[in-house]
TrEMBL record:
GO biological process: asparagine metabolic process; glutamine metabolic process; oxaloacetate metabolic process
Listed GO MF terms: omega-amidase activity
Catalytic activity, EC: 3.5.1.3
Protein's name according to its UniProt entry: omega-amidase
CDD domains in the record: nit (cd07572)
GO CC term, one of those recorded: mitochondrion
Family that this chain belongs to: Belongs to the carbon-nitrogen hydrolase superfamily. NIT1/NIT2 family.
Pfam families, per database record: CN_hydrolase
The keyword Hydrolase is assigned to this record: yes
InterPro entries found in the cross-reference section: C-N_Hydrolase (IPR003010), Nit1/2_C-N_Hydrolase (IPR045254)
Residue ranges occupied by any CN hydrolase domain in the UniProt entry: 24-269
Length: 296
């Protein structure tokens, strides 16, 4: 169990973790994704090993890294978790490379339902967490884009956090990024990093991708990682790309463009404590008037 320390700003500040690590080297892999599932997975495995060689301790993949993104593809590419071929490949890669792998997302089949699901594997290949996308991407922007995940997918119903090497990490998928309350609950559970595999499109991407990532980092005073597929202009759904890592001050520490690449950055966890002690909004909230609660 983690050792804890009491915040010096105010005794009412419920305890925060005394991190066993001062930092974490994270790799955000902006993969090119095509119609060949086996090729997509093999490419992801290769990038996991390459990231490890460069010193990564945690490797994160993008949304739908093993399949094209689109409601017409989910059923065809779906597999069970954790017994499917993609999960076996991720587990093996994590164990062989000795890194934690946040496996982007894959279409998950569970009974007669399909989910957009993120799996997490520790450095021994053990399944640490599974997050099913809670907020389905149903939008209609006239003359721009109409998309309804709910025509095919079911929504998840759980907030998902996990601990790796003493660091609490929260998960969201793409459209989940828009929901402040979800991020708030993960921060309340002690998270210092939120990771969002996501494939914002060419309409919402340039307007909101970085903006929402910075907003979540600032309002929850933690690190935010955004991991997107690379852009393929010939695809049915075109990803904006621009994977990024954002610090608790809201500064974009590093960001990719739209082509396949890997972002390798050191996360300084002491900045979380720095921001929260200097701007102590977590103890200044008027919970006598309002609050964010988990209902189930």
């Amino acid at each position: 169990m983690l050792e804890t320390t009491t915040d010096a700003v105010h005794p009412r500040f419920t305890k925060k973790p005394a991190y066993p690590l001062s930092g974490l080297k994270i790799a955000l892999v902006q993969l090119a994704v095509g119609p060949d599932k086996a090729k997509n997975v093999a490419h992801a495995v290769q990038e996991i090993h390459l990231a490890k060689e460069k010193g990564a301790q945690l490797v994160a993949l993008p949304e739908c890294f093993n399949s094209p993104y689109g409601t017409q593809f989910f059923n065809e590419y779906a597999e069970e978790v954790p017994s499917g071929s993609t999960c076996h490949a991720l587990s093996k890669a994590a164990a062989e490379a000795g890194v934690c792998v946040i496996g982007g997302t894959l279409p998950e089949r569970c009974g007669n339902k399909l989910y957009n699901t993120c799996t997490v594997w520790d450095n021994t290949g053990k399944l640490l967490a599974r997050h099913r996308k809670m907020h389905l991407f149903d939008i209609d922007i006239p003359n721009k884009i109409t998309f309804k995940e709910s025509e095919v997918l079911s929504a998840g119903d759980q907030i998902t956090t996990f601990e790796y090497q003493g660091i609490k990490i929260g998960l969201g998928i793409c459209y989940d990024l828009r929901f402040f309350e979800m991020a708030r609950l993960m921060a309340d559970q002690g998270c210092s990093l939120l990771v969002y595999p996501g494939a914002f499109n060419m309409t919402t991407g340039p307007r909101h991708w970085e903006l929402l990532g910075r907003a979540r980092a600032v309002d929850q005073q933690l690190w935010v990682a955004l991991v997107a597929p690379a852009r393929d202009t010939s695809a049915h759904y075109v990803s904006w790309g621009h994977s990024a890592l954002i610090d608790p001050w809201g500064a974009v520490r590093a960001q990719l463009a739209d082509q396949p690449d890997t972002l390798l950055v050191d996360i300084d966890l002491s900045i979380v404590d720095e921001v929260r002690s200097q701007i102590p909004i977590r103890v200044q909230r008027r919970t006598d008037i309002y609050d964010t609660i988990k209902k189930s």
